[in-house]
Amino acid sequence: MKTNKFYTFGEPVSLESKSLFEPYFDANPIRSSSQGFASLYMWSDQRFAIVDGMLIHAGRGWFGQGYDGPFIYLPLSKDGTYDPAHLRSVILTCDDALRDPEMGFRVFGVPKELVPLYDEAIGDIAQRLDNRDSWDYVYLRSDLELLKGRKYSKKRNHLNYFYENTPFTYEHIRQEHADELSDALDDFSRRKEEKGAIDPLVQEEIDTIKKILPQIEAIGFFGGLIRIDGAVKAFTLAYPHTRDSVEVTVEKADDSIRGLYQAINREFVASLPEEILYINREEDMGIKGLRQAKMSYHPHILQELYGYVL
């Protein structure tokens, strides 16, 4: 349930927020995919404020994590450096501003590399959460593009079957594709419903994607689509995350077409500028099928992300 206290904190994330966030993001490349502008803008109940020099992103409810209370992502300094005492003071200020009397207050998205800092800053007043469902999957661009080695043999077989048997075209996504992408999402939902396999979290994701399609270029999304017989059957939307990585926020395909998922993945990655070395494909939200799919591409690293309950 919404509380007035939360909605008096800072201001909503908007398109105008993007330029304000960028210096903080550039100074803090080690952060979760959830703490990028595209993700912050896509999901509802996201607010921000500058608290004693640090950028704070706050939300209510952690998508797919069974928590409906207020939280902040890790505070970001403008130069990427932190003092434990200052960090503690900022977090306590946010706690005071956001705490719900019933659900409490949490800090989410703390990378493993920063756990010692947070343990020193708030370890005596907070319990650390080990939440595997929120970890980011980060892949080598070369692995996804080339699919070399025995571990990718099944992927290559599906991909080669698609290339040999399915005439297709690949296009870079532009704003004028928005209506076609929305239609493709409707087809995706319909196929899942027919199989009785639609997950509430997946449907929420689809609904959210449809809401932002009219603004994909303004947000900064880019991506690619595959047409078969003129119709969009697969597409990917991504967003720059760091200087050498991108975050794949959306990947949808008609799973009745063998090799299509492998094809949209490979075609998109192959189209990226050469300076992009890593692909962050976000978390699995604890969804069994999604975890299996992400693990099957053999991530280069799992970015471990932790939370704290105050």
Instruction: Indicate the mean pLDDT.
Output: 93
Low-confidence parts: none
Output the number of helix runs. 11
- Write the element-wise H/E pattern from the N-terminal end onward: EHHEEEHEHEEHHEHHHEEEHEHEE
Q: What spatial order of strands do you see in the largest sheet?
A: 1-2-3-4-5-14-6
The separation of the N and C termini measures 20 Å
Q: Summarize the amount of helix as a percent range.
A: 25-40%
Rg over CA atoms, rounded to whole Å, is 20 Å
Largest sheet: 7 strands, mixed
- Secondary-structure-derived class: alpha+beta
Which geometry do the CA atoms define? globular
DSSP strand count: 14
Summarize this, please?
Helix content is 36%, strand content 26%. It is an alpha+beta fold.
List its traits.
seven-stranded mixed sheet; 14 strands; 310 residues; 11 helices; alpha+beta
Write structural notes for this entry:
The radius of gyration is 20 Å and the shape is globular. By secondary structure, the chain is α+β, with helices and mostly antiparallel strands. It has helices at residues 18-27, 37-42, 84-98, 115-122, 141-146, 153-165, 178-195, 200-212, 216-219, 260-270, 288-295; strands spanning 11-12, 46-51, 54-62, 67-73, 106-111, 127-130, 136-140, 169-172, 222-228, 231-242, 245-253, 278-280, 301-303, 305-309. A seven-stranded mixed beta sheet has the order 1-2-3-4-5-14-6. The chain has a seven-stranded mixed beta sheet with strand order 8-9-10-11-12-7-13. 36% of the residues lie in helices and 26% in strands.
